[in-house]
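Continuing the series of single-chain predictions for the mutant panel. This is the parent chain; the variants come on the following pages.
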Amino acid sequence: MKPAPTPLADPARLSLRDLMMYRSQIVGEITARSAQIRHYGDARIRARAAAAIDGLRQERKEIEKDIEALIKAKAEMHRLYKRMTSVPGIGLVVAATLIAELPEIGRLSRRQIASLAGLAPFPRESGDRIGYRAIRGGRAEVRKALFNGARSAIRHNPIAKPFYERLRGRGKGHKVAIVATMRKLLTILNAILKAGADWRYEPA
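Parent structure:
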């Protein structure tokens, strides 16, 4: 059963959410302008567009400083941040997104937290796709952050990397394997926050 979401009543968390939303808009504008710049034939316009992109990138850096400062100014958010970023693959943006958008993390079961994030697989049977499992619903910003975290983790995390590689070796497509890795990361984060301990890797 899907748990009821926790209201985002904490003013600091709401401020963090606003900062993350603004950062997301800036990133979207950088992406759009970077795609457009090559279509300008006039070198002067390209130069002006490049300067605008540089300005947006500087704004993104300033926003990220504000995000980090807000987190460090609040003891509870800072505690969560330090725990999360002890996991390889989890940086400022991923941790801040989870703090802002998934306040239930660390207080629910792994199935419940996966459901809230929209990462709980469900069977979808139609025609020749019997047994196919997909994900749906949940919080889009959380999934986006975990996708970026998983991309980093499959390069640097000693648990996520072999997990992803095993799935690929068994013939799973990249999308299926990356979603499973996102769910794995969320499970790890939920577990360490519930336990109140930093992440530790102990090779078998």
